[in-house]
Task: structure prediction
Amino acid sequence: MICVYVLDDETPALHALGSASRWWLHGALSELRNTLNRHHGTLLTLKGSAEKLIPQLAKDTGAEGVYWHHRLHQKEREQDERIASTLNKQGTPSDAFWGTVLLDPTLVQTKEGRFYQVFTAFWKAFQKQDVPEPLDPPAHLSFSPLPDDLLSKYRLDEATLLPAHPDWASGLRATWEPGEKEAHEHLEDFLRHDCVRYGKGRDEMGREGTSRLSPYLASGAISPRQVWEAIQKKGVHDEGASIFLSEIGWREFAKYTLFHQPRLPDVSLGQKFGKMAWRTSEKDLIAWQQGRTGVPVVDAGMRQLWKTGWMHNRARMIVGSFLTKHLLIDWRQGEAWFRDTLVDADWASNAMNWQWVAGTGIDASPFFRIFNPTRQGVKFDPDGDYIRQWVPELKKLSGKDLFEPWNAKEDELERAGVRLGRTYPRPIVDLKDGRDRAMGAFRSL
Ligand SMILES: Cc1cc2nc3c(=O)[nH]c(=O)nc-3n(C[C@H](O)[C@H](O)[C@H](O)COP(=O)(O)OP(=O)(O)OC[C@H]3O[C@@H](n4cnc5c(N)ncnc54)[C@H](O)[C@@H]3O)c2cc1C
Result:
């Protein structure tokens, strides 16, 4: 056996991996290599066109077969078909398996043989299917020597996956350890401690009430079937477990939607949004990216993302709503920023959730449901812990002032050492004006 990973940045139709995902990939590859080393093998990592390298590798090594996991997007599938066809022509059989999802996305269909567009209906139909059990790792592995020629020409210099100057990854290193062992530890820890009150805990931004499995799932360090099986064993009768399972269901639905709707990452699926008059404002976009909008809960989320490569789900919804509604900036700008900065960046989940938040998707939160960031903060970060952690310059403010410093009395600001416009920005948009502008744009569609 030869285990190979190909980083293909050369095929233009495929979205390139973002910077945080590359950082994560570095750790994931070295961890996988360590595991294979313990079985007296190794991992071959190559860089270049997969369409060229995989058949070449098969030829050079006289491979009897080539195997991989199915990918989901039409462009990825077309590429996989081209690779299979080249292999076939040179006499090498190949096969692919569903590993990144629970089920083959063609299996869940409406009575009319169409694909579901609404999560609740999808999830109901999905749960009638049997999810195959995850396979145990093989007991014995037998490795072939690696081909020198390919190695010298196309070896991936894994160090290039890491940031050089400036080294922006210190917060990521302090927060995460990529790898299979850590993935299982996260799952066990979650099942032991947080699962039971996940229904409520998943919305509390100031504490760790969720599994933090997303980057492990996104990189394949743990498979959704392993997660599914662990939950089944725990018993889905527990309310927390069943809500958690439905979140795994949302992940599945995103991949299913990407499979059936390849336009998902690029086009607003709700047709009328094709004509939406999105604003272009480099200044507002940068303020949002840097967590300097002057709206504390939004800034807290954006700074958590920048520092750790991850953001709480509730905060993702708040910052997404703020960008697409209060700032009226196209959801694709938000999607692109998340894709570059999230360690769990996932083509399907990211695009589907952005379309959900922006209200442009098919099964999405309606556009006119515009989150009020202050109310969201008060509700889901009632003690202000999340804001104080990520926006420490406001930490001495108390009560509502922490959520709306622009409404605080001068002496309260002074006592807390806050000087608006100096130590912390004034809001870049008046919340009411931003809301009205968004509603105006929506009504004119
Ligand atoms: C604007 C926006 C962008 C997002 N982009 C991504 C992304 O690129 N990659 C990504 O994995 N998730 C994305 N999400 C979904 C969600 O925020 C994260 O999956 C979740 O916060 C990860 O933390 P966790 O592992 O602790 O989740 P938990 O609450 O513990 O959930 C367990 C798992 O279920 C899945 N899951 C949970 N919520 C969702 C959801 N809404 N949609 C799809 N899957 C879900 C994830 O795989 C997650 O690891 C996005 C959400 C929003 C609102």
